Amino acid sequence: MEGKVYTGEDYKTKFNPRDYLKTYYAFDSGTVAENEILKFLLNNLFETFSPGGVGGDILIEVGTGPTIYQLLSACEAFREIIVSDYLELNLREVDKWLKKEPGAYDWSPAVQYVCELEGDRSKWQEKEARLQRTVTRLLTCDVNQPRPLGSAQVPAVDCVLTLLALECACRDVDAYRAAIRSLVGLLKPGGHVVTSVALHLQNYMVGHSKFFGLPLEKETVEKALQEAGCQVLKSQYSPINYSEAYCINEGLYFVVASKDPGA
Which residues form the signal peptide (predicted)? Predict the structure, then answer.
């Protein structure tokens, strides 16, 4: 995995959403490591957003990428979902799926998997329709800015979801901590942060392009949340690594935290 490492503005010219999807989210292919990672995330999201768990009026996802898998359980727990990403191309990919446009990426294997967790695999088309109704806005964001959503007017939300995103966007640990503080600032008091991190990430491939990864440890993630005024409610570690040809990491970490009600 030698060669130039891309970051920041490079995403706008070097990141190919379809290459990313084919590499990491071909759920029905033979890429065993990537499939197991997706199952780990879907299982944790299902548990997190099940009845009696995290829910409310509005969830905002920061760093959506070109994917929708992470919203399949959330759409049962929230009245409205707002998605945001740094790249217009990624938002366009999501919008194609939401609008059922020709050539939209096929998420049906992941949708069916979540429906099986919920008890009825046959309801996957209903699940897709529910998510397509629940996502109401697509916004651009930049987690390295004090106001990650820029000038967009967004009310305080019940949940911020950010999966496998901040360790790709933040250049160092200080930037990561600042990003966490900014995202917690989007929450109502008592709201929740749901996040996952590819630990000890070095870099990852999208097509023939190599992108930067910030090496984070479990303790760094938890400390950043605590310093931002959150209490960690649940954490789950998995030793699964991505296929070495695609990504260098050492395990995954899934965390649910709540913002101090007095904040």
Answer: none
Residue 90 assigned as binding residue: yes
Where do the domains of the chain lie, and which CATH numbers do they carry? 5-259 (3.40.50.150)
Torsion of CA 188, 189, 194, 198, to 10 degrees: 110
158 appears as a binding residue in the annotation:
no
If residue 220 lies in a helix (H) or strand (E), which one and from where to where?
helix 218-227
- Segment (H or E) for 85: strand 78-85
Q: Indicate the pTM of the whole model.
A: 0.96
Q: How confident is the model at residue 1 (pLDDT cuts 50, 70, 90)?
A: very low
Tell me if 143 is assigned to a ligand binding site. Answer: yes
pLDDT digits (tens, 9 = 90+) for 196-237: 999 999 999 999 999 999 999 999 999 999 999 999 999 999
69 annotated as ligand-binding: yes
- Any known ligand binding at 142? yes
* Predicted pLDDT at 85: 98
